[in-house]
Amino acid sequence: MKKIAAIAPYVFAILLLLLIALPFIWQVLTSLMSSGEIASGSSWPKGLYFKNYLEVFSGRYSFLRYIANSFIVSGATAVLSITIGCLAAYALARMRLRHKNIFMLAILSAAMLPQIAAISPLFLILRRVGLLNTYWGLIIPYTGFNLPLAVWMLYNFFRQLPPELEEAAALDGAGFGRTIWHVFLPLAAPGVFTAAILVFIFCWNEFLLALTLNTQESMRTVTVGIAMFPGLYEMPWGIIFAAATVITLPLVVLVLVLQRRIVSGLMAGAIKS
């Protein structure tokens, strides 16, 4: 019984991992099948059929352009969200503000707003100011939707830092900007790093706003671009799954390589010292 009790958590973890990874495994296997194998309902490729991956990068589809658009939008949103989030979190955590709880409740309420409820007003506003089919037309809404996450995570980090650090920085002649940049940001680096990664992943995977606000082919992000892959007379499932694998693998590798920092950032922000 003791051996079973010791092994049971590992068995459960492996089964849970397989359950989570099963869709991705199926995606990779399908991307290595020919159209005939996919149509026949085969569950395992008879050989390594890499033509789907070659077709993705053949120039028939603007796949590299879609990836570049996603990198620009996701990276700019992460930088902007963290920059504004740091200033807001510092103000909420370190300064004596009246009705601070109301501010925090408003931020939490904004995080609960469903994207689909904001699409119509966002579309009308961006059309009025001429930002449809532009990078900023996605960066600004993405930043608005991700700011609550950044502020909440960084607020916990700034709240844990002792006020003596500010006093010491002030005695050394450091102003507000230098105190934030040279004192607080290095100490809050785990939270900043984790929040930036989560914001980047959200923007990279987002589909609904990108589909609605950027309709020109040259401005499509990679998720929308893949959805527009279908051919004239058939669905190129192999090519679609190959493209999905290409854009998923970097995120999987990124999370696996940086998982310790991400977990430490989440835990450090959740536990008050």
Written overview of the protein:
The protein is mainly α. It has a domain at 62-228: Orthogonal Bundle (MetI-like fold), CATH 1.10.3720. 76% of the residues lie in helices and 0% in strands. The protein has helices spanning 2-31, 35-39, 51-56, 63-94, 100-111, 115-129, 136-160, 164-171, 176-187, 189-205, 208-213, 222-227, 237-257, 259-270. The radius of gyration is 23 Å and the shape is globular. The model has no long low-confidence stretch (mean pLDDT 83).
Give me a quick take on this structure.
With 273 residues, this protein is mainly alpha-helical. The chain has helices at 2-31, 35-39, 51-56, 63-94, 100-111, 115-129, 136-160, 164-171, 176-187, 189-205, 208-213, 222-227, 237-257, 259-270. It is built from 14 helices and no strands.
Question: How would you name the CATH homologous superfamily of the domain at 62-228?
Answer: MetI-like
Radius of gyration: 23 Å
Topology-level CATH name of the domain at 62-228: MetI-like fold
Q: Kindly state the mean pLDDT as a whole number? A: 83
Total beta strand runs: 0
Unreliable stretches: none
Most strands sheet: none
Structural class designation: mainly alpha
Name the helix and strand elements from N-terminus to C-terminus, one letter apiece. HHHHHHHHHHHHHH
- CA(first)-CA(last) distance: 39 Å
DSSP helix fraction: over 70%
Number of separate helices: 14
